Hints:
The protein has helices spanning 87-91, 110-114, 119-128, 146-160, 178-193, 206-219, 227-241, 285-301, 306-310, 374-389, and strands at 3-6, 16-22, 29-30, 35-40, 45-49, 54-59, 65-68, 72-77, 95-96, 196-204, 247-250, 253-256, 262-268, 271-277, 303-305, 314-318, 337-341, 345-351, 354-368. The chain is an alpha+beta fold. Helix 3 (119-128) packs parallel to helix 4 and helix 7 packs across helix 8.
Amino acid sequence: MATRVVMPQMGYDMKEGTLVRWLKQEGEEVKRGEAIAEIETDKAVVEMEAYASGVLLRIAVAEGATVPVGHTIAVIGTPGEPLPEMGPASEAVARVEAPGEEARIPQPSSTAEQVKASPLARRMAQEKGINLSLLHGTGPGGRVTVDDVQAHEARMSEAAVAPLEKAERPPETVPLSRMRQAIARRTAQSKRDIPHFYVTAEVDMTLAMKVRQQLNETLGEKVHISVNDLIVKACALALAKYPTFNASFEEDHLRMNPEVNVGIAVAVEQGLMVVSLGECRGRSLVDISRTAKEVVERAQKGVMRAEEYTGSTFSISNMGMFDVDAFSAIIYPPHAAALAVGTVRQQPVVRDGQIAIARVMKATLSTDHRVADGAQAAQFLGEVKRLLESPASLLL
Length: 396
């Protein structure tokens, strides 16, 4: 029996998605779990996997079209079998963001194709008719970023209008990117709907930093264990012991997530996104480190797998690299909690009645009060603290 492929909901508040590119064409064989298309959400371009094995009998949505979640975009089945009734949703007119009779993304010139640019920057330039070869990239290796495209557009706009006297110049209006709009919606929803409370603890990271140094010296260039990798592992073990903090609030009940998928906040060109490290309880520190590096690189390039974009059940936000002592994170819906950590800093501490120098990190747990209370939050954060202060437990 033929299977309809619909626009998936890749995100808690996703309402629609743009079909960026088909990776398979009509008549080609596909296998269940194989990537068949690239879907653009508010924050990234995500690979969409086939729901079933068979032949791609029909492509119902052209590249460049934006359609609602649940809209039929293709049909998979066996050759010669009749196509299913597409239903009202598939007959709806898809909104196409790019011009053109065939609802396709305008193709760049051969010169523009050679320019290094992020996928989102390239798409924005295509939509606005900007030749990438005219831009000077400020990203790594001269890569053109979304900010470069927006800056070029702003310069062109200023050149097209007569200059105004400084006193008469109106306030500048900066349009928000799709990602920044999504961040605005989600953070406002989180602070409006989720009753946050916060618990902070100081973690003595002296032993953890020594163990990290020894591991990295032993591993050499194979892998580099970061402080964040240690925190991810500690949180995964603590979530296994206190599963309430791995749950989600749903009106009159909690949804207890069976997997511990730790999300890490990643700064990308247009804002911030949480990427998921799948089932971290049984992962080694080396595995966590390698996976985190791969996922972060894909997030920064703007091309991710669906499970990396939507699967997290708890999130960590680390601003230690910015020399921040402490801060409070906004809970990422539908999570029940988020951990915010600052820099690991040397400071005096009292040990056995004597003053000593230790490496200390402040950690703040934001908790949904509908899911847990203060005592439970203190116990969970205490377990994270215990694990980081006894780093041998992270190696078992």
